[in-house]
Amino acid sequence: MSIFSGIWVPLITPFADGAVDHAALRALVRRYADAGVAGLCALGTTGEPATLDAAEQDAVLATILDEARAHAHASAQPQPLPVLVGVSGNYTASMLERIEQLNPLPIAGVLMAAPYYIRPSQAGIVGHFTALADASEKPVVLYDIPYRTGVRLELDTLLTLAAHPRIQAVKDCAGSLDITLTLIRDGRLQVLTGEDMQIFNTLCLGGSGAIAASAHVRPERFVALYDALAAGHLAEGRRMFHALAPLIQALFVEPNPAPVKALLAAQGWIRDELRMPMTRAGAALTERLRALDAELDAELDAERAV
Fold first, then answer.
1. Residue 285 is assigned to a structural domain of this protein
2. pLDDT given at position 269
3. Is 172 within the bounds of a domain?
4. Does the annotation list 193 as a binding residue?
């Protein structure tokens, strides 16, 4: 089975006084490893990579890989937590250079969206991803997110790309049930939803997991949800998802990752800082997130008391 299953956390980049907070980043890596997530995604959209220069991106990735390795050694795990790396851009040649830089690193794969803004043809998209997958020594996860890139990966394009031996999965944010179901039934690509409110649906349809920003704040609950559904415990999984749904919805009321960062800051993991043009979540939303988080705490206490 492909490693691209289960709950993956697309790591935020914590800041302190404008600089990357590497100590907080290390603490988050340990937190999610201890919670049992399947893997981490570094430098994805949630990590604000567009606001990081090349040196900062390299340093963030180095910290994540180093802490994952250190945690595995300290906890006697056979392997570090897998790390998927986001690679963004709209010029194939420059992305090929980035792929060559990543090839020697101990990463699980690369996550790549369609070229943004320029809106190439589907033939251009196939050529772009094929060139990058040919150059990569690591597995490739396609990122279908048309509301950010301006172009969608059509079904025929996805099925064509699925024939490439290094293209192994898709982060599915296209909002098309037909495409999601067809890819799952086709079986060549592992389908991980990137829309957190679709986690339950995707897993019930036979999808392999999720790359879920909201799993930052309650990772154990998301892992338990996945485990319940993977074991066929539909009613238990439905109950868990219904409990998580209000928090998931609230975490996307304002642009990601501002709400996630606000709640992580309230929990004491990071400072509530973003880089412009991203701004902090509003005070009203932050209070709502705190209240929803407290409600989940109360539910967990009730479960333990039974």
1. no
2. 98
3. yes
4. no
